[in-house]
Amino acid sequence: MYNDFSKWFCEYDTGEEPAIMNTFSLTDIKKKNLSDVYHFIYYHPDCSKQSIANALEISLPTVSQHLSTLLEERLIEKAGQLASAVGRRAAAYRIIPDARIAVGIEILDKKVYITALNLYGKKEAKERYSLVFHADDLYFDDLQKLVKEFMQKYRYREEQLLGIGLGIQGLTSPDGARVTYGKILDCTGWSIGRFAGYFRVPCRFLHDAECASNSELWENPQISDAIYLSIGQHLGGAVILGGELQKGLTGKSGTFEHMSLVPDGRTCYCGRKGCAECYCSGEFLAGPGMEPEEFFAKKEQGDAACLERWEEYRRYLSMLINNLHMVMENTIILGGNIASLFSEEDIAAVRADVLQRSTFLDDVSYIIQGKCRSDAVSIGAALPFIKEFLRDIGTEAAM
Description:
Nucleotidyltransferase, domain 5, ROK, ROK family protein, WH-like_DNA-bd_sf, ATPase_NBD, carbohydrate metabolism
């Protein structure tokens, strides 16, 4: 698993130089060894130098060199000594989870959520701030002040920060530099330049549904092929194939919210009529003036109006789920802050509605509830920076 140098080498005829020598240098191998040592400690905390050397099949002096580098970089630390019946007890090593952090922001119309993740993708800190959205540079001025206030409150140093992701209700360019479609917040064409200018780390926009699916993939690494439905105030989605998010040719894959569900139905914010957004979003379920938590509490108490709306909502949601399953016969994950409020009985009711609608009377256990129950957008906005750090650790650490 860790020592896969063999795949770097090529078959060659007698008398010829191996192709690898023209491509990979000793520095490349050194970088890979450093990365392997770090990743072994990452997945096997409180391990010894000898266990690292045995697992990676590299020499103790080589391991010692890389441990020294990682200790100097303050990426790992000694964690006491391992128990031993005989002889000298070996030092145990583990990574420092908050040696680096990533910040994710969920941008909504009247508030923002700011979350910090450590290198295990675990939530270190979270704050909610009131901030009325307006797509101009003055908004960025206010937002950067909140980020710096957040950093100061939790005593994060600038050198700890890997990057800042801004989860937004809109489609974004591949590089995350601008919003390509932002009807909900009226921010199409908005550039991240002014905000990024306040920081010395990468900053990028991410579609909120992409953020939520990032969070789910992190919590559910065994997921291979699935459709992710992000059910929040608004509806969103993502297609996952081979454990990777599929964005499509122009980044519009998974925009299930704009599939036509009811011909000539309600008017969607996109200007068309009958979109799934109008019938499967939290806005439709709870209605104006009622928080989702209040709606589900009333439903559980037997409120007639809430029960009637819940049945109507399930009818449309089951229609959407069945349609999606006809296109891709994969797991369908119900995520987002509204779906996180579904009880086991609610999930069972949705499955029953889908089964009733299904042509093939399928086993509807393919419909599952997401594991990431809260802060999925702000967490998912930060996760790409964690993943990039883990991928590039051998390159970024001092050699």
